[in-house]
Amino acid sequence: MRKFKQITVLSITGFLLVQVARSAGIEQDMNSQSPLNDTTVNKNPTDQNVLVKNDPKKDFKNLYTTAVFGDGVSEAKLNPMAVSFVQKYISRNKTGFMAMKDWAGPKLEMMDKILAEHGLPGELKYLAVIESGLKYNKKSTFGAVGPWAFMPAAAKEYGLRVSGNKDERLDYYKSTHAAARLLTDFYAMYGDWLLVIAAYNSGPGNVQKAIRKAGGSKDFWVIQNYLPNETMNHVKKFIATHYIFEGEGGITTVTKKELKELVNNAGPNLNENDLSNSIAYKITGRFNSSVIMKYTETDVVTFNKFNPNFDNEIALNGKYELRLPIQKMNIFVAKRYEILDESLNLLLKTSNTNSK
Q1: N or C: which end of the chain has fewer CB within 10 A?
Q2: Are residues 84 and 176 in the same domain?
Q3: Which of 237, 262, 287 is the last residue of a domain?
C-alpha cells in the first residue's frame, strides 16, 4: 500500500492529523498493492471537549439519529456508479462470505454489540470483513495487523498495546473498541459513512485532498476519481459486502445526500421529528402488536403510525422492521423474548379457539 507523508490540520475539529497507515482488502486482496495511508488523531487533553462536541450522536441529532443508532432505512438503493463493480464483486465473493456467516457468526455478533455501545451502526463490522477476512492474525505487506488492520501507531493512539510480547491488535474485542473510537472520530469529521470508509483506508489527508480537487464537494461519487484507486474500490467493496450479508443496502452504503432523501421518503406518516425520536429494529418471529403495545405501554395510534400493517406483514413474512420511540424501543429490546413468548402463546390460544 502506498504511503503518504503529510499533516492535515482540520480547523473545524482542531485535530492534528499525523501520518500512519491503514491496510485494505479481504483475504484475497491483502497481498495486492493497495494504499495503506492511516491517519490518527492527536488527542491532547484540551481536545477532549472538541471530541465530545463532535460526537456523532449529537452532531446529527435532527437528521441522523436514525443513522447513528441503527439502520432505519431499508432497501437503500445502489448508486448507479457502483452497480457494475458490486455485481462483479458479489459474483466473486458471495460463496466465501456466505460460508463466513457460519464460522464467524459469534465474532460478527460481538462486533455488532461493541459498535452499538459506541453509538455506531453495526453494519460497520463489514469493514473488518474486507480489511482482514476476519482473520485475527492477518498481516499486510506494510505491517497492518489484526481483524481491523491497525498499524502500530494508530493502534497505540487508540488504546491498544503493541510490544514485542503483547499485541492487542490481534484481540477481536479490544481492537473492535479501538476501531469504533477511530470511526467515531472520522464520522465527527465528515458525517458521511462513505467518506468515513474512505478515510479509514487511505487517511483523512487523501480524502481532504480529493474534496479540494473536486471543488469542495463532499459527495463520494463526485470525489471518487480524485482518491487513490484502491480507496475508491475499497468503498465499493464495503458496499458490496453489505449487500451480500444484508441482502440490501443501508445507512452506511449511501452518501449524506442520499441518506437525507431516503429518510425523507421513509414513510408518508413520519416527519423529521418522528424519525429523530424513534429507532428501527429488525425482528423475526410471530410477534403480536397488542403484546408489544402492552409491554412498551405504547398506544395503538402511535404504534400503527410507526408500524403500518404490522400484524399482516408478520403473518406473511415472519419479519418486520419495527419502529418505536427510543425509550419504548429500549423496553422492547430488553423484554423481546418475553414479548415473543406471550405473542406465540396468544397465537396458539387463538388457533385452538378457532379450531373448535
Answers
A1: C
A2: yes
A3: 262
Task: Assess if residue 34 is contained within a domain.
Answer: yes
Helix, coil or strand: residue 147: coil
Determine, yes or no, domain membership for 22: yes
**Which ranges of the chain does DSSP label H, i.e. alpha helix?**
48-53, 56-59, 61-69, 83-103, 105-117, 125-132, 152-157, 172-190, 193-202, 204-213, 220-223, 229-246, 256-264, 272-276, 289-296, 300-306, 310-317, 326-355
Question: Residue 169 belongs to what domain range?
Answer: 8-46+69-262
Structural domain includes residue 57: no
- For the chain, the domain total comes to 2
313 is catalytic: no
CA distance 325 to 302: 9
- Euclidean distance between CA atoms 106 and 225, whole angstroms: 37
Residue 154 belongs to domain with CATH number: 1.10.530.10
Q: Which of 131, 168, 230, 258 is catalytic?
A: 131
250 and 296 in a single domain? The answer is no
Query: 327 and 200: one domain?
Result: no
Grid coordinates of 313: 406483514
Do both 253 and 329 map to the same domain? no
Residue 77 per-residue DSSP state: P
Distance, CA of 121 to CA of 119 (rounded, Å): 7
Short-list 275, 328, 304, CA closest to 71: 275
